[in-house]
What we know:
Elements: H1 2-15, H2 20-47, H3 49-57, H4 59-63, E1 67-69, H5 75-104, H6 110-113, H7 115-148, E2 157-159, H8 160-177, H9 180-189, H10 195-200, H11 202-216, H12 222-257
Parallel strand pairs: 1-2
Helix pairs in contact: 2-5, 5-7, 5-8, 7-8, 9-12, 11-12
Amino acid sequence: MNKEKKIKEVKNEKDEGMGFLGHLEELRKRIVWAVVGLVIGCVISGVFIDKILDYVILAPSLNVNLKLQNLSPFGQPLMYFKLIFIIGIIISFPFMLYQLWKFVAPGLYMTERKWVSRITFFTSLCFLSGVAFAYFLMIPTMLNFAAQFGTKKIENIIDVNSYLSFITIMLLSAGLLFELPMVTFVLSKFGILTAEFMRKYRRHSIVVIMILAAALTPTTDPISMMIFAVPLFILYEISIFIAKAAGKKKNDVSKNED
């Protein structure tokens, strides 16, 4: 009887409060707040855009003596708008992620709702770690290779919008790929992914990682590919331990409830 009572209480925790219209209203509310956060992030990046451009975005090209040029009449205004939006996304990412979890939270058990702030923090940390890894290691290495490769008779003068696209792809790709441990944690908590499954398909994951590295790195040299691939191998191995720990904790909680 006590077990059945607990099950009913847990179900009531999930089912109480919201109908279909309530969920739609909550979704609208979270989207509005996410957009507000993005706008604030864009305003902040817009205020400091010149310093961000000079000391952050253009710095890697200056360190390897790559020359940038504008090839279209509205190339620079378009570049500024793109950059403001991209930096705005990076600044507001933790807040937008928090809004996503707040929307999901009403459908979770009471014990699961306690994860929201922790998951938001660690997910943001993983994303920013990926961005930092790309900026301080991947991008300088790739640009250095591009600057030194080939004959000296051909001068490397790059379109500034192509350069910005390269920087953007590297930063956002690395940021998202570094989310692997947190994605693993969440999926393991819900019983969708297990450490045994990840160990079983480890060899397959190596192939997938190498394909991702080849697709996301614009250069074809093996050094750049390995700089991208090796951290993903490490993240995959870390994710196996995370899946094991999350699965074990979930089983312990289930036993205590029984």
